[in-house]
Specification:
Oligomer: single chain
Mean pLDDT: 85
Structural class: mainly beta
Helix content: under 10%
Number of domains: 2
Shape: globular
Order of helices and strands: EEHEEEEEEEEEEEEEEEEEEE
Low-confidence stretches: 1-18, 218-227
Distance between the termini: 52 Å
Radius of gyration: 19 Å
Strand order of the largest sheet: 2-4-5-6-7-8-9-10-11-12-13-14
Number of strands: 21
Largest sheet: 12 strands, antiparallel, barrel
Length: about 300
């Protein structure tokens, strides 16, 4: 069903300006909201650039608001019992119409199990369609067969072929990857930020769709929310201490706008560099991650 066409290539990084970003499953979270825009006046030549350390620049494009999207737990949708193999949902409200795309998210795969799901029906997948694999590293190629209800088997191929910075008229995103897909013969380019993991742009035969994060990390929750930790003191002035149930892999700190401040592997976290305010701390484990809010005085 799922086959790797090629393993990871050996990359020479001595001349690279940036490290190669990696997209991981534990970086995709519920609790995020987006405005969805259609882009025109696109610099297509910029989007066609590929390779390492690319600067994609769409700052001259024109954005027209289409609607909104939300990353949700399945329990926040009306379809949890109909799709028991889904644990992640994207709720779209486009031009006044609400539909859901439903997914199974694990540490190794993000796969679609239903799309265009609404009160009037939807399209279940008899064999899920891979949206992303994890960890997704530079020059990985992945092939998958999938089948929607009422259709024959089809094939989708993913290739992480480029990374760099992505600029629009609204924001500049660092550590962006390009996921090039060929889905039953249709080619698309999907751009994802990896810090945190959010979609930035989709370019396909239907046009150019921009995602703009509007919620930051407020309310963000991990799929594996059984993993908990304590922090003290809170509020804190200079340092936070992490008390966790199991060995940690790393710690990430984000501000209220969802911007990555810094990472560490130390259970005593130096926050003296932060400005006073509200922040989120994410602790990563082998089996998942957990998030808490803290106040920097």
């Amino acid at each position: 069903m799922k086959t790797i066409l090629s393993t990871f290539f050996t990359i020479l990084v001595s001349a690279s300006l940036f490290s190669q970003p990696v997209l991981r499953g534990d970086s995709i979270h519920t609790g995020l909201s987006f405005n969805i825009y259609s882009l025109t006046n696109i610099n297509v030549a910029s989007l066609q650039q590929m390779g390492a350390n690319i600067n994609w620049n769409l700052s001259s494009s024109t954005a027209t608001l289409l609607g909104t999207a939300e990353f949700l737990q399945m329990s926040a949708t009306p379809y949890a019992t109909q799709y028991p193999n889904a644990n992640f949902a994207i709720k779209f409200n486009i031009n006044g119409t609400t539909v859901y795309s439903l997914f199974n998210l694990t540490s190794t795969i993000f796969e679609e199990v239903g799309n265009n799901v609404s009160t009037s029906g939807g399209v279940p997948f008899l064999n899920p369609r891979t949206a992303l694999i994890f960890p997704y590293t530079y020059n990985t190629i992945h092939s998958d067969t999938y089948q929607k209800t009422g259709q024959s088997n089809r094939t989708i191929i993913h290739k992480y072929d480029s990374y760099g910075n992505f600029t629009t008229s609204m924001a500049t995103h660092n550590n962006v990857i390009r996921d090039l897909t060929i889905d039953n013969g249709d080619t698309a380019a999907n751009f994802w930020s990896t810090t945190p993991a959010i979609p930035i742009l989709t370019a396909n035969s239907n046009g150019f769709t921009l995602w703009k994060l509007t919620s930051g990390l407020t309310g963000m929750s991990s799929i594996n929310n059984n993993l908990m930790f304590d922090i003290y003191p809170n509020p804190a002035m200079d340092h936070l201490t992490i008390i966790n149930k199991e060995p940690l892999l790393g710690i990430e700190v984000y501000n209220m706008c969802g911007q990555h401040e810094f990472s560490t592997t130390q259970s005593t976290v130096d926050i003296s560099v932060l400005q006073p305010g509200i922040y989120f701390i994410k602790v990563n484990y082998v089996s998942g991650n957990a998030i808490q809010k803290f106040v920097k005085q």
